[in-house]
Design a protein that fits this description.
S-adenosylmethionine decarboxylase, 22% helix
């Protein structure tokens, strides 16, 4: 009788790490400052070991206006959206690649926005492992 033995080998995988959070009672002077928020995103990308490709900043008026900063990194993105009237900010750090560390970026952002409280979530956005079958053997 012939028996086939399957050998499973990890060949390739996309490693995705996504941190998203709500920050409450942030420093109003920081979350209102477009320039400061831009610098925070730049430094966060560096700390995450990600390559900043482009940075965009928008300031919105009105009663619920605020600032949005999005850093497009080659590995995905880092975003901060703020609502100074509510002293509230949301943060999104999504990186791909085993070489990145979004937690370093996130901790830095929190240290700079100085929230009194925050809630944080993590999602593994990795692809499935691609498996291949090695040649069978006779037993």
């Amino acid at each position: 009788m012939q028996k086939y033995v399957e050998q499973i080998v990890e060949e390739d995988r996309v490693v995705g790490k996504h941190i998203y959070a709500n920050l409450y009672e942030c420093d109003i002077n920081i979350i209102s400052d477009e320039k400061k928020l831009s610098e925070i995103v730049k430094k966060a990308a560096e700390l995450a070991n990600a390559i900043l490709y482009e940075l965009k900043v928008w300031k919105f008026g009105g009663s619920k206006g605020g600032v949005s900063v999005i850093g497009l990194v080659l590995e995905s993105h880092i975003a901060i959206h703020t609502w100074p009237k509510y002293r509230f900010a949301t943060v999104d750090v999504y990186t791909c690649g085993a070489h990145t560390d979004p937690w370093k970026a996130f901790r830095y952002i929190v240290s700079q926005l100085k929230p009194k409280n925050f809630s944080v979530n993590y999602a593994d956005r990795s692809s499935p492992i691609i498996l291949s079958q090695k040649s069978s053997t006779n037993v």
